[in-house]
Specification:
With 509 residues, this protein is α+β, with helices and mostly antiparallel strands.
Length: 509
């Protein structure tokens, strides 16, 4: 009995001690939790106080130190860095000893995620683990923090492709398309020849990789990827396309040097185009870009109601000549625009204006077989031949008639600067009133008219008698003097200025 009482007292004592220990442990845990919560509250308060929209000291976006800036200020500075980088020249190595160069601006450099990088800089050290944020803020306050957020650069694919392709041509054995030519035995098809070309996708990938892997913002070299390339047009593609469906010729031989170059360059870009049934082609897309690298020069062109110097001036004669050849081939004209003023190389309503991405000549192969465009340049004449398979009635003939109506007239004489040398003063175009014109397509079969349809309607502004005045000189001061004389629009002043430049001041002067 006594033994049982002792055991009972012992168990009771143990329970009391255990309960006391548990209470003590609970108190310790509660204190620890309270202490942790309190410290976290203090840390959070500290971090929150520094979450004021300002970037911590020691933060870089790209190579730009954005310490202490707000989001707008930081973005402005980063944009300046991007702008400065655009002037950097990059060398693209085609092969040993064969290199081309381009600025990053020409290649379309951008940093599309710049705003995201700046936002990350603003948030850095302010979000996430509180203790970690506290440490980063304290480190920044002691000027011991350095954190770099990379800028992701890239070049614009189409822009870069155009530049690289045009500048690499001289170093590559370019493929040669099969072509339709007039040989001793009549119309013949030449064989295509394989060549080289840039693998543009991989080359641009190399460019972007260069920009985003330890690039220091200085010029560098990127390896181009060259591969064997088949010609786009083969002899098989041209088999059977030996009938001329439509042809038209205009004369450009007496234009200024720049305009001659532009007409020939634009025409060559259209040469050899093959269109399968249902396919469309933009004349502007085939001829652009209008740059020195792509073979163009500055020359006279129409802008509103005036003649101005522009890159590629003269390409409208190319598109107008092609337009007429397409009409005779009876291909579908999807898009065509008249000039603001009459042109001298085709009749009213037979022109087709080109103006970058604003005005275009777009056509479609609405036939059941392919068509092929051939360019012929000879003795100052531009000819386009449209080849295909003739299916029309041999007795079918097409005539295009331009009917015009004169409205208001114009008075006076206008003088415009041209790319000719100083001393040139020549009539460019006669005065003409405002004109409305309509082009009719008249079809006869076996001598009998079977249809007469309106093809287009055009309206042209009135224009005074226009003289071209040469302003080109090795001395820029003489060119400035000549341009100033043209600004007066006074013939006597212009003639006197020409005489003064060519022969010196008169005795009376």
């Amino acid at each position: 009995m006594a033994t049982k009482r002792r055991r009972h007292r012992r168990r009771h004592t143990i329970r009391q001690e255990t309960l006391r220990d548990l209470c003590l442990l609970g108190s310790v845990l509660v204190c620890a939790v309270l202490l942790f919560a309190g410290s976290q509250a203090i840390l959070r308060s500290y971090v929150k106080k520094h979450d004021d929209g300002k970037i911590l000291s020691g933060i870089y976006v790209g190579n730009t130190d954005v310490s202490g800036m707000n989001q707008k200020e930081a973005l402005d500075e980063v944009q300046k860095e991007i702008a400065n980088c655009r002037s950097v020249m990059v060398t693209v190595e085609i092969a040993e000893g064969k290199e081309i160069q381009a600025s990053l601006e020409e290649l379309g450099l951008s940093a599309p995620k710049a705003k995201d990088a700046v936002k990350e800089a603003v948030r850095f050290g302010k979000k996430g683990n509180t203790a970690q944020s506290y440490k980063l803020i304290k480190k920044a306050e002691k000027k011991k923090l350095e954190h770099h957020i990379p800028l992701e650069y890239e070049v614009e694919k189409q822009t870069a492709s155009n530049i690289l392709e045009s500048r690499a041509k001289e170093f590559l054995d370019n493929p040669v398309n099969a072509a339709i030519v007039q040989g001793p035995e009549g119309i013949q098809v030449t064989e295509a020849q394989k060549g080289e070309g840039l693998n543009m996708e991989q080359t641009i990938e190399n460019l972007n990789q260069f920009l985003n892997e330890d690039w220091d913002g200085k010029p560098g070299t990127v390896q181009a990827v060259v591969e064997k390339k088949d010609a786009p047009v083969t002899a098989d593609d041209l088999a059977g396309l030996t009938d001329i469906l439509g042809s038209y010729t205009t004369y450009y031989g007496e234009s200024g040097d720049g305009r001659v170059k532009n007409v020939e360059t634009g025409a060559k870009h259209l040469d050899g185009i093959l269109l399968k049934p249902g396919e469309e082609q933009s004349a502007n897309a085939a001829m652009e870009p209008y740059t020195y690298e792509n073979g163009y020069a500055e020359a006279d062109s129409y802008e509103s109601n005036t003649v101005v110097q522009t890159m590629g001036g003269g390409i409208c004669q190319v598109s107008s000549t092609l337009y007429n050849a397409l009409l005779y081939a009876e291909l579908e004209i999807v898009e065509r625009y008249p000039h603001s003023m009459l042109v001298s190389y085709v009749e009213a309503s037979r022109d087709a204006a080109i103006a970058d991405d604003l005005l275009d000549l777009v056509f479609k192969n609405n036939l059941n077989s392919p068509i092929y465009i051939q360019t012929v340049l000879a003795d100052g004449n531009l000819t386009f031949n449209i080849y295909g398979k003739e299916t029309r009635n041999p007795g079918r003939e097409i005539e295009f008639i331009s009917e015009s109506e004169e409205n208001e007239g114009t008075e006076g004489t206008r003088f415009v600067a041209t790319e000719n040398s100083i001393g040139y003063l020549s009539l460019q175009s006669y005065a003409h009133p405002e004109i409305t014109a309509q082009l009719w397509k008249v079809v006869t079969e076996d001598g009998q008219e079977v249809s007469r349809d309106a093809i287009n309607y055009s309206q042209y502004m009135a224009a005074p008698e226009t003289y071209g005045v040469g302003v080109v000189s090795d001395d820029p001061a003489e060119t400035d003097l000549m341009n100033s004389a043209i600004m007066t629009q006074d013939q006597e002043t212009i003639q006197n200025t020409i005489d003064q430049i060519l022969y010196g001041p008169t005795e009376s002067e």
